[in-house]
Please model this.
Amino acid sequence: DNISAAVAGIDHPAYDVFRRTTDRRAPHNVVASGKDILKNVERFGYSLEYHDTFQPKFKFLSSDDADIYKNMPDVNIIYPGGQASDGANGYSRIQAYFQYDGEKYYRYQYGGPHIDEATGNQLTCDNVILQYCYGEVRDENDYLAFGCHGDNGLPVQVFTQGKVINGTWSRYSDNDPAVYLDEAGNPIKLTPGKTWICIIWADYAEDVELVR
Model:
């Protein structure tokens, strides 16, 4: 079940979900709303109940294991593309970073807070994931492709409650979520709330900077 824009190759396009704004250049000006998505869920007859085979994307911390990462290293600022503004990694040129304030991770870009246009508030999340993967340039227009599947145990860094947990990730099929494991092979658990995943091009892994 999916809600997709009316582009070539889409069998059941959702014509009235997506619209373009005039404040940005295409293709960066497409927006959608939850209300319109739900309208098309009803139009397509999609179920709002989980299937019996549903696998959740994340595992979350409970009151029984809230302190399991207390001995992990502290990280207060996450620079997915480093602090330089001229790198080719996709993050440094927009000066993207996350800063932990003791409760939430606040996102910054272009020298200031990243603001939610709908609310006027700075974007925040409860967890940040740096998922390292293979990447390549496909054509002369810098069309990029990233390998988000595989069972190779590629690196991952999960940030929650001001801590960093190093581990590996794998994703075995289109219908399965990525699995995040710590260095001991245990599932990494997240703080309940919002999670921001940054795809890190493995060729630029050394550009990542963490400030403790």
